[in-house]
Amino acid sequence: TRTINLAVVAGDGIGIEVVEQGLKVLEAAVAGSDVAVAPTSYDLGAQRWHATGDTLTDADLEAIRTHDAILLGAIGDPSVPSGVLERGLLLKLRFALDHYVNLRPGKLYPGVTSPLANPGEIDFVVVREGTEGPYVGNGGSIRTGTPHEVANEVSVNTAFGVERVVRDAFARAQARPRQHLTLVHKHNVLVHAGHLWRRTVEAVNADFPDVTTDYLHVDAATIFLTTNPSRFDVIVTDNLFGDILTDQAAAITGGIGLAASANINPDRTAPSMFEPVHGSAPDIAGQGKADPTATVLSVAMMLAHLGYDAESAAVEAAVAADLAERGDRVRSTAEVGTELAARVRG
Amino acid sequence: TRTINLAVVAGDGIGIEVVEQGLKVLEAAVAGSDVAVAPTSYDLGAQRWHATGDTLTDADLEAIRTHDAILLGAIGDPSVPSGVLERGLLLKLRFALDHYVNLRPGKLYPGVTSPLANPGEIDFVVVREGTEGPYVGNGGSIRTGTPHEVANEVSVNTAFGVERVVRDAFARAQARPRQHLTLVHKHNVLVHAGHLWRRTVEAVNADFPDVTTDYLHVDAATIFLTTNPSRFDVIVTDNLFGDILTDQAAAITGGIGLAASANINPDRTAPSMFEPVHGSAPDIAGQGKADPTATVLSVAMMLAHLGYDAESAAVEAAVAADLAERGDRVRSTAEVGTELAARVRG
Ligand SMILES: CC(C)[C@H](C(=O)O)[C@@H](O)C(=O)O
Ligand SMILES: CC(C)[C@H](C(=O)O)[C@@H](O)C(=O)O
Question: CB distance B188–A83 less than 8 Å?
Answer without folding.
Answer: yes
